[in-house]
User: Fold this.
Amino acid sequence: MTALEHRGVVGGLTTTERSALLARSNAAGLQQFLVHVGAVAVTTTLIIERAPFWPAAMVVQGVLLNFLFTTLHETVHRTPFATRWLNDLVGQVCGLVVLLGPRHFRHFHMAHHRYTNEPGKDPELAEPRPATRAQYLMYLSGIADWWWRITTLVSTAAGPNDHDFVPERSKATVRREAQLSLLAYAALGAVSVGASSTVLLTTWIVPLVLGGPFLRGYLLAEHAGCAHTDSMFANTRTTYTNAVVRRLAWNMPFHVEHHAFPAVPFHQLPAFHEHTQRHLACTENGYVRFNRNYLRSQMAEAVKS
Assistant:
């Protein structure tokens, strides 16, 4: 097994296989997105109408809203839809929901792909992964993550942008995007205050906080505990899970497959997995199992040290 084995697998695809895997589809993307949005509409209605067990609906709402991050993630690759403007429009909507500027996040995420799991270069490693139980609980709480998203929006809007992963030619566009986002949030806040309404709090802000730990537990599984190597088959983890989670996360549990060939749209990742599965060095059976094993391994390392 070589350090760049994933390139060998991708290079070994036939022209027919490659064409099939790279086929983008507005129908597949819209079906996935509309089912997700439809689920949000149902939980939003339950919360507003104060249906029985509506506080539980807030948690479900929070999970659904937080996992729009995975939709945003796909749109920055411009793969879920065949039409460019659909990718951009859906990305803008999801970015506003989860407090991330799509253009800024695109540059952040491309740097992550370029330097996956490489300390000092992968921007996802700017904050160390949790190494103790207290750090793990703080990580799940999302306090640092929400603070980063908010302060990044504000500092980017104020400028100048000092993030190395944002190229000079894009800084003005990224700044304008952050400014427009803040204006949109200010307008929503003003309307809510003017109408003496708590709808945004109960259907958006509070659910985002409540559902955040589910997304963070999911995201931790993508690379934590994987090797620091150039091989996507070793520095990234594919997590075997159920159909509900795969749909919620736009098939991103097939994360090795996504990193090995990022141009493959979400609906083709299961097919690409057929080519990669025998090469995978880092896998797990379920997210609860991963988090339990991760916490145990960190505790064991803490005892050793």
